[in-house]
Amino acid sequence: MKTIFIVIGKTTDRRIATLTDEYIGRIGHYMSFEMQVIPELRNAKNLSQEQQKAEEAELLKKTLQPGDYIVLLDEHGKERRSIDFASWMQKRMAAAPRRLVFIVGGPYGFARQIHELAQEEISLSQMTFSHQMIRLFFVEQVYRAMTIIRGEPYHHE
Fold first, then answer.
1. Domains in the chain, ordered, with CATH?
2. Distance (Å, rounded) from C-alpha 153 to C-alpha 134?
């Protein structure tokens, strides 16, 4: 199984990008993990929120494959403690979808059609974070989940 993390727009803060890359490298010791960056829309300021979500949806759909297990990182999704997320990841990996795909949407969230494609939605917090910070927080949680699954001392409960 391959895990794909799809994000819209590159990380402009070099410090966040460096930390994100570090955790992605750590995850690579446990599983096949890749972050795919979809370029930001051009002239997004000239688009309504709905138009922007629709155009982002078209770009996202081009990256998806039949059989993908799609999980949206969305503020309205289910929250989990780290230990519960680790258990969830272990079950997802055991179910062996060809690709487990996590997606962070654009600044206005996801178009309805992307919500309809997803099997699940996860929220990392009830708080709002920048899209760049969410990337870092998410990859750290995936790394944490892998260490919990392996019984390694990174996580303390």
1. 2-149 (3.40.1280.10)
2. 24
